[in-house]
Amino acid sequence: MSEKSVKITYWAATGLVALVYLGGATFYITAHDMVAGMYEGLLKYPTYIIWPLAILKIVAAVVILWRPSTFLSDFAYAAMFWHLLLAASAHIAAGDPGWPPAIIAWAALIISFLTQNRVREKKSPYGDLLNSAA
């Protein structure tokens, strides 16, 4: 894969993940009552986690885009990985058809993580999984 195509792939995947997270946070904030109803009724989750999740979604999106440090970026990638995996499984278990965005964002997150070191100046110590596996 050429450097230009890796760069396009990385930024498209990273942008998609950030867009999903910022969009989700915006939805949590602007439609709080609707989200609370979904959390209580459909997913059987407590509603007190909505505000912390909204804030953390914004923070995670900013961290993977801005990348103030590789430690924070790797931490955000790990948190997002598990959040998206658990979000998809929660929607599937509840019989809710809202799981595809989580799976698509999860795949984009993996692509972003695996291509980050070929694009970013600050290299992650864990971002070269593709090169070390070959």
From TrEMBL:
Subcellular location: Membrane
Native source organism of the sequence: marine sediment metagenome
Topology in the lipid bilayer: Multi-pass membrane protein
Keywords: Membrane, Transmembrane, Transmembrane helix
CC per GO annotation: membrane
Broad class of the protein's primary localization: membrane
Membrane-spanning residues: 9-29, 49-66, 75-93, 99-115
This protein's record includes keyword Cell inner membrane: no
Pfam families assigned to the protein according to its UniProt record, in alphabetical order: DoxX_2
Protein name (database record): DoxX family protein
InterPro entries recorded: DoxX
